Amino acid sequence: MSAPAESPHPAASARISPKLGGATASGAATPAGPGPAPHQQNGPAQSQMQVPSGYGVHPQNYIAPSGHYPQGPGKMTSLPLDSQCGDYYSGLYTVPTQNVVTPNTANQQPGAQHMYGRGPSAPHIVGSTPGSFQGATSPTLHLHTSAAQRYSHFVNHYSSPAMYSANSSVASQGFPSTCAHYAMSTVSTAAYPSVSYPSLPAGDPYGQQMFTSQNAPTVRPLRENSFSDHSTAISHPSPLPPPPSHQYHQPQSLSGCSTLSWSASGLPSTQHNIVRNHTGSLATANSNSTNTVTDSLSCPVMQNVQPLKSSPVVSTVLSGASSTRTPPAANRPVEPVASVTQPSELLQQKGVDSSSTTSSASPMPNSYDALEGGSYPDMLSSSASSPAPDPAPEPDPAPAPAPASSAPQPSKMTKPFGYGYPTLQPGYQNATAPPNSGVPPSSPGYSGFQPYAQQYPGMNQLSSGLGGLSLQSSPQPESLRPINLTQERNILPVTPVWAPVPNLNLDLKKLNCSPDSFRCTLTNIPQTQALLNKAKLPLGLLLHPFRDLTQLPVITSNTIVRCRSCRTYINPFVSFIDQRRWKCNLCYRVNDVPEEFMYNPLTRSYGEPHKRPEVQNSTVEFIASSDYMLRPPQPAVYLFVLDVSHNAVEAGYLTILCQSLLENLDKLPGDSRTRIGFMTFDSTIHFYNLQEGLSQPQMLIVSDIDDVFLPTPDSLLVNLYESKELIKDLLNALPNMFTNTRETHSALGPALQAAFKLMSPTGGRVSVFQTQLPSLGAGLLQSREDPNQRSSTKVVQHLGPATDFYKKLALDCSGQQTAVDLFLLSSQYSDLASLACMSKYSAGCIYYYPSFHYTHNPSQAEKLQKDLKRYLTRKIGFEAVMRIRCTKGLSMHTFHGNFFVRSTDLLSLANINPDAGFAVQLSIEENLTDTSLVCFQTALLYTSSKGERRIRVHTLCLPVVSSLADVYAGVDVQAAICLLANMAVDRSVSSSLSDARDALVNAVVDSLSAYGSMVSNLQHSALIAPSSLKLFPLYVLALLKQKAFRTGTSTRLDDRVYAMCQIKCQPLVHLMKMIHPNLYRIDRLTDEGAIHVNDKVVPQPPLQKLSAEKLTREGAFLMDCGSVFYIWIGKSCDNHFIEDVLGYPNFASIPQKMTHLPELDTLSSERARSFITWLRDNRPLSPILHVVKDESPAKTEFFQHLIEDRTEAAFSYYEFLLHIQHQICK
Amino acid sequence: QCNPLNPLVLSEYLIHAFFCVMFLCAAEWLTLGLNMPLLAYHIWRYMSRPVMSGPGLYDPTTIMNADILAYCQKEGWCKLAFYLLAFFYYLYGMIYVLVSS
């Protein structure tokens, strides 16, 4: 049990450590506890060592330890174990007693020890600290002697560290972790001294660990260390004398492990129980079980122990978890033990105390988990429900003190960061759990272990048990839980997938930037590029910097505090060295705190620079001074360039546009200086003189499109307020002005040149409406699409621009702070690939309405109307630049989005809008070994529509990890997918579509095979993924079936290119819906789990997987594809639903084209509509609703989004998994 | 951004091609052989340049991507070394011919 628990947490560390395991541990131990170690001690130590190593290394190890113990009891995950565990808390304590009692026969003793160990292990499992417990217990047992005490000390130390770390978590561990910590600290310190150096070293390591704990990985190591320490402690003694014993123990342990594991299978449930208990902190049950278990174990010793402590102890522990009580209990038992063991060691007494503390420490392990959990709780993840959070409060306080106590030892006092994830994998855990009671010499832990892994299916129970174990306290384990993809049918969670929370400590977590604005594909940054390469995962950031925020601290200050060398803005993650100086967290330069910064405007107090809003919020906005201006802030300037050729008039967009403009004229963002202008073009270019004072708008026609000039440069862009009447006249007249035009040509290029000339003095926004291929003048384009190639599976050509005219124009515009937004409303091929360049490089946005017609295609017309409303009234920032900085050692190498890259880290954005997302690829240039945190900061400097210069700063802080498992634990699958999609778009443009598709598949294959080889050396017949990556193959498959990348299905080139543009510039949340739509069943909406938004009840139906198997004829389903909603009505759908929601009597009477839900006064209609409205809110592209009847021709559009199903041209999800598996095995 | 640089690319390539032609005329097969790989590389590089209307090689929108930038820089250094070595080799060849004649 303990093993599992630990394993999850420290998994990574465990792995790492395991390898080092024995050696490092022993080494550490030696230093730490070089002291005298009797053979027995050694023995124990060994056993301990083994255990720790086991922990660290693998569950196997764990198992092994347990096996040793015995085998007990072991970890035995089985019930006995549980009982032990339960007891364990008590057990540990008890252990000592047991030891005392039953030191007698060595064998028996070992067994007892094992038992104890198990017991401890169990606790360990429960907490992260089990190891320590085990160690403690085992030491106590083994040692009986002083060594044991030392061990215990060590254990205590460990536990104490754990505690420390735990503090934050607090958690159920309850333990009294705080108490324990305190006790520990005091004791430990005392004990250490007494114990002597060994303990001290141990303490140091662990202290370091604690500190290091900041980094999850480090933490794990720490644990390992601690384990190792224990072991070392043991080993120390042992090293000196008893290596043999180690070996000896190890074998035992191994055998034990194997046996254990096997037996465990039977026992799992009990283990689970135990685990749960531990986790649950309900000791009583555990204690009972433990008692029973022990009984079952039938080890005399065990029994003795049990009787002694178990029940009381356990209970105490449980209760203790919350309070310090347990410690006392532990102490009591311990003390006796101590006395028994070696009275001589007064210190040892302390040690005993410490051991008792250890016992508390064992809780510590829990606390460890709790620590992690503490952080975890925030994590939300699976364990969200977990009670663990509760502990948090306590932990917080505890941590501080603990660190303080421990602080002295470790040089690095870094704050406790998030805990390492428990690295161990479930399988391991399972293995550990299973330990048999019998002494198992024979099979190595491995063998035992493997079976487990292979037995996977069986694992479910185990894993669930594991989950149970860790469950409450730490989600982390969850993120690493191996999942057999081919056997997991319902991979998609029923609730939306949330961003993983970086494994930081609570304080930092609270401060960290919202994942909505700033996400990293790896929430644990690997320490080195080599590690990153090993993980085969993309590293990058996804930004949504100008998102509409409801709460944004705006800071007006004369001096904006920035680092003097790297110009980083002060942020919550800097460290204040003292009152007057702060250390930059990006370049580590020490800067002075300016006088003004000492005063806090919020609290009106002086001398608290760390309370300033800049240091309390990771997203802030500064009002910039004139230092940040190259010229006076520009006014808002809007120019509309409209296609009025025959084609455009036919489509009828002018009516909609003019209507929207008239409605929103007053809502255009801007101040009194706002200017606006209009141009139209067909084969000539028309300007409109709207100068104030004219009686009606004047149209000026320029027919010289080869050399465009501006007829009256001053009066074409006019003040919105002074010429409002003229503008309204023009907008009213425009739709009818060209109704009889016969001009079919379109001179877009020259019109854009004219627009550029018009805008270049000020900069601003140009909105271009185009309905066909430009056919005259500069920038004319040829039709490049061959309709017969649309469904080709081979080569898709012409994804890149045909000419660089638009790109150069965009660069010119960008240089003059002008952005070009493109609205393409065409029914035919318009070479979006070339046209899009004008927006791509000038930081504009692109809207595409295929087959637009105002009467024939009302849904598109409605969409245009809604989009325009949003487009015209949303926030806008002018003449913006965005700079992204990151901690020294990281570097950015490729940017994705719409902008122009002016230098390696500076993006020039003529306009910024709230719907623009960006992605950045990162590489690790220098090893990050000397830092535990990395930070990223984006600073967006822009001119608001009110003419204010502002800087919006986002800062994201992430932990650095050194183990591969931690890297996997921290994967943000959605971010990774979005980054991959961006990279794939680049690849398909620069190379070919099939290359990009291969690259996507390879990304899955590589990362999963890398993970597979990390998990074990076994030839796995199953496709294993960590739970953090379980959706990876599904999303990649979705990408492959996305319009942008699909082959074999008829896809118009413009549609494809538009999808690519969307991928490049959509923020993550919207992009994910595009890639993987959400499917809901809406014919049975209930208020269960509903949320309330603006007094409206919004039902929250569960997500369904995108497979036809989920569609039943009796149901109605809503699919949310980001820009489109489909409502699919089954053939035998309940007539009540059809009547109440759709307003038709039965299925047959539903019209083929239906794009609205009628406002009916029924409950189900209200629910459905409020749900849809809620989904619609805050989309940059307002989705259109299609009601799709089963059997209607439109249903193919709906079905093509069911990405888990097979199509003529593409794999089903299961086939895709098999394909991947095949690729991996190759 | 790349305006000052782009016109120089083609002139460099032309000068190098001119040298190659001269070596060909002089029947300096060894020297020509040394230069052929670079000539081929130039031709390939120019054929696969991004879509642009003017002469040149460097696309201002992508040049700042770290990998492309790094590639171009590396390419620049390598060619500098090659030209330097070639210069001294030509010098040596010329003096050798002068002395021996």
Question: How would you briefly describe this protein structure?
Answer:
Chain A has 1226 residues and is an alpha+beta fold.
Question: What does this entry look like structurally?
Answer:
The complex is a heterodimer of chains A (1226) and B (101). In chain A, the strands form eight sheets. In chain A, strands 3, 5, 11, 20, 22, 23, 25 and 26 form an eight-stranded mixed beta sheet that branches. In chain A, strands 12, 13, 14, 15, 16, 17, 18 and 19 form an eight-stranded mixed beta sheet that branches. Chain A has a five-stranded mixed beta sheet with strand order 31-28-32-33-34. Chain A contains 44 helices and 34 strands. Chain A is globular, with a radius of gyration of 33 Å. In chain A, 46% of the residues lie in helices and 14% in strands. The N terminus of chain A is likely disordered. Chain A is α+β, with helices and mostly antiparallel strands and 1226 residues long. Chain B has two domains: 59 residues, no CATH class; 36 residues. Chain B has three helices and no strands. Chain B is elongated, with a radius of gyration of 16 Å. Chains A and B meet through helix 31, strand 21 and strand 22 of A and helix 3 of B. Chain B: Belongs to the cornichon family. Chain B: It is found in: Membrane.
